[in-house]
Inverse folding.
């Protein structure tokens, strides 16, 4: 049963594909499950995640080794969870990454149906 929720926001100037791969590997190493994700063109990605509360501290430490710059609110939330994990509790949340670049929006051709 999920008893807590955490929202993590980050930005990066790293290549989009490299940043996504790094985030996925970081979540995997931290015991974090990716439940779903949503891409917003090439501007951002939002992962819906879940992990054991006792894994939040490791997740936070692993995030700090990436090229992601966490928002102040995210740092406070991660620190708070890491300081008081809550044995047996689960944490659900989101990891939203905004990509800083000057590339044009991605365009996908949508086939006609009919």
């Amino acid at each position: 049963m999920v008893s807590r929720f955490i929202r993590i926001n980050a930005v990066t100037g790293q290549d989009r594909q490299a940043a996504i791969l790094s985030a996925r590997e970081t979540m995997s190493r931290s015991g974090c499950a990716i439940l779903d994700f949503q891409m917003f063109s090439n501007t951002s990605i939002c992962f819906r995640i879940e992990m054991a509360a006792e894994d939040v501290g490791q997740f936070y430490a692993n995030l700090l080794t990436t090229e992601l710059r966490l928002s102040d609110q995210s740092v406070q939330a991660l620190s708070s969870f890491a300081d008081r994990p809550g044995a047996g509790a689960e944490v659900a949340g989101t990891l939203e990454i905004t990509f800083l670049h000057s590339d044009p929006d991605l365009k996908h051709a949508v086939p006609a149906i009919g």
In short: The chain has one domain: 2-85+92-99. Residues 2-85+92-99 form one domain. The first helix runs from residue 16 to 29.
